[in-house]
Amino acid sequence: MSDVVVEGSGETVGEAKWAALRDLERLVPGLDRESVRFEVVTEGERGLLGVGYMPARVMAAAAAPVAAAVAPPEPHSEDLGDDESAVRELLGRTVAAISASCTVTITATDEQLVATLAGPDLGLLIGRHGQTIDALQYLANALAYRRGSERRVVVDAAGYRDRRETALHAMAQRTAERASATGSAVALEPMTAVERKVVHEFLKDDPEVETVSEGSEPNRYVVVLPRRSVD
To answer: Which of 158, 186, 216 is at the close of a domain?
Structure first.
C-alpha cells in the first residue's frame, strides 16, 4: 500500500503538523490521525526581535486506501485491446475514491496515452509538488504494463506537466550556472521521482555539471555538481 505524503509549514513545529494534518484529511477520507507519521524537516527559526522568521516544516505520511481500491485489475480476454478505456476507468475510480470531481480525456498515439484531467478539483488532484498526479501516473503505467501495453501513460491536468517542466528547466539551468561559477555542489529542493528525472535529463549533456540524486523518499533531491576536469 502506497503512502500519501504532504508537507506542512508554520511558525512552530506544532502548527506545521496541524497544517499537514488538515491537508492529509482532505486527501485521505476517514483518516486515522493516530496512524499519521511525521518527520520534522526544520524546526524553524525566529527572526531578530521577532521580525521575520524561517517557518517550521514537516512531512506527514499516511497509508492511502486508494491504492488497494484501485490496484490494476486482472486483464480479461475481451478487453485486452482497449487500453484507453482501462486507463480512463482506473483514473475515474481513483479520483472518485478521494472525493474529487473531474473528467478524464484520453489522447492516444502509437507511443503513448495522454490522460488529461479537467474539473474543479485540479489542485487536489495535482497535490503538493505534484505528488498526487505523479502517483496517478504511476498507477496508470502499472496498469498498462500489466495489460502488456508498450505505450507510456502521461497523466496531465490543465497543462500542469508543461508548466512544471518549464519551471524545472529554468531552475536546473540557474543551479547549473551557480555550481559551475562557484565550483561547489548545489542541492535542489526535494522532488518526486518524475521531477528528478526531468532535471537529470535536462542537464545530462551539460559539459560543465553533472547530477546525482541523494536522500531518501519523500525527501530525495537532486544535487548538481561541477564536472571534474581531466588533465
So the answer is: 158
Count of domains observed in the chain: 3
- The C-alpha cell at 89 is 476507468
Flag whether pLDDT at 52 surpasses 50: no
Tens-place pLDDT, residues 93-114: 888 887 888 889 999 888 889 9
Looking up residue 83, the CATH number of its domain turns out to be 3.30.300.20
The verdict on 44 and 92 lying in the same domain is: no
Residues 6+ apart with CB under 8 A from 39: 58, 59, 60, 61, 219
Q: Is residue 163 part of a domain?
A: no
Query: In the structure, what pLDDT confidence band is assigned to residue 231 with cuts at 50, 70 and 90?
Result: very low
Give residue 16's domain range. Answer: 3-63
Cis preceding-peptide flag for 218 (omega within 30 of 0): yes
pTM higher than the cut 0.70: no
